[in-house]
Amino acid sequence: xxxxxWIIGNWKMYKTARQAxxxxxxxxxxxxxxEADIGLAVPYTSIAPxxxxxxxxxxxxxxxxxxxxxxxxxxxxxxxxMLKEAGASFVLLGHSERRHTFQETDEMIQRKVKRxxxxxxxxxxxxxxxxxxxxxxxxxxxxxxxxxxxxxxxxAEEVSHLLIxxxxxWAIGTGHAASAKQVGEAHGFCREVLAELFGxxxxxxxxxxxxxxxxxxxxxxxLSEKEVDGVLVGGASLDPEGLASIVHHCCEGKPEKxxxxxx
Length: 263
Ligand code: PGA
Fold this sequence. Notes:
41% of the residues lie in helices and 14% in strands. It has eleven helices and eight strands. The longest helix is centred in the C-terminal third of the chain and has 19 residues, at 180-198.
């Protein structure tokens, strides 16, 4: 019954390249034999060194943002092709910190998703409502708008490269994760919208990850929800043992308290 889970770490603006390779050196032995798709969305300067260090392992390396143009006069920006050549295979797009702190609009995110697919990176499209929107029961409306606007021009043959992350803004970095029930409902709704866009069969193949205060103690609970295919982990992904513990819980489907303490 166990599904092969996705676990992606989002490091945000943490770790120098040296700290990043030290982390991976500690992480890889802890992941031996696990049946999961594991990715790290690292700062730009760590993409090449981490990719080289992790060569030969199944660890995927990704970026946290990119520009929507192939190239151009955009001082300070970075293009998908540059990320790909450095070793990235995926990119987070539309993360709530990009939407809210850097004023990224649905239109910008749509162009970035399209560009990522054109230039060979898998987009991890992040969607999610704010606390005010949830209090007004607007979460479905927000999720529909964010999904439809970002995915409207995706050709059918590209759908298999997409990943979605449901990240309610009020659960990110707050220590207050959504409940498994709230996550199950939101993922079910996202799956419905994806089915409207791409048909039921294709929609069923798109991994939908939950993100927002995921920890070793709660990761397995989210995975037990039908439409949850993995987790996107911010703070708890900065420590190799913490991240490995999340991976093991997701694979084994057991909550923290039932696991043997390792020391
Ligand atoms: P968090 O962050 O796990 O620290 O809540 C999640 C994210 O921002 O993707």
